[in-house]
Design goal:
This protein has helices at 2-6, 24-44, 63-93, 100-129, and strands at residues 11-13, 19-21. The chain is mainly alpha-helical and 140 residues long. It folds into 2 domains: 1-56, no CATH class; 60-133. A two-stranded antiparallel ribbon has the order 1-2. Strand 1 (11-13) and strand 2 (19-21) form a beta hairpin. Helix 3 runs antiparallel to helix 4 (100-129). It is elongated and about 70 Å long.
């Protein structure tokens, strides 16, 4: 189960019952292949929109992928958002006891980290949680 949380790529079940982890390079190859398939499909249809009843839809994610996505979001909230919130709270409550330059560096650093966390949270939600099945027919 710990392999699911620390795997940097997509996790799928192998036929033998084990888990298979795809790396970022595998993801790039998959993206190129999907783009090539989309271009081939567009070429075969003459670049026209799909006829009614022949729409291309994305497959539903597997249960393993869904569980991994939610675990990824949970660990993000615990280890990034909660930890950063605790550091901000500690810095605010101990601001009189901390030297001025440390307080300024801590405030600037935590502001940057908070901004990065918001961007990463948005990207995580958009990529894993808020995926829709009808986005393959749109041009990206």
């Amino acid at each position: 189960m710990s392999l699911l949380m620390f795997c940097p790529g997509i996790v799928e079940e192998k036929a033998g019952g084990g888990l298979l982890c795809f790396t970022a390079a595998d993801g790039e190859r998959l993206t190129r292949q999907l783009t090539l398939n989309r271009q081939t499909t567009k070429h075969k249809t003459g670049g026209q929109k799909n006829r009614p009843g022949t729409e291309i839809t994305a497959p539903h994610p597997s249960v393993t992928y869904s569980v991994t996505s939610w675990l990824n979001l949970g660990t993000f909230l615990v280890f990034r958002v909660c930890t950063t919130g605790w550091m901000i709270h500690w810095l605010a409550t101990h601001s009189e006891l901390v030297p001025r330059y440390v307080l300024m560096m801590g405030t600037v650093g935590l502001s940057l980290i908070s901004t990065m966390n918001m961007v990463l949270c948005y990207r995580l939600l958009r990529a894993d949680i808020l995926t829709s099945t009808d986005n393959t027919g749109k041009n990206h």
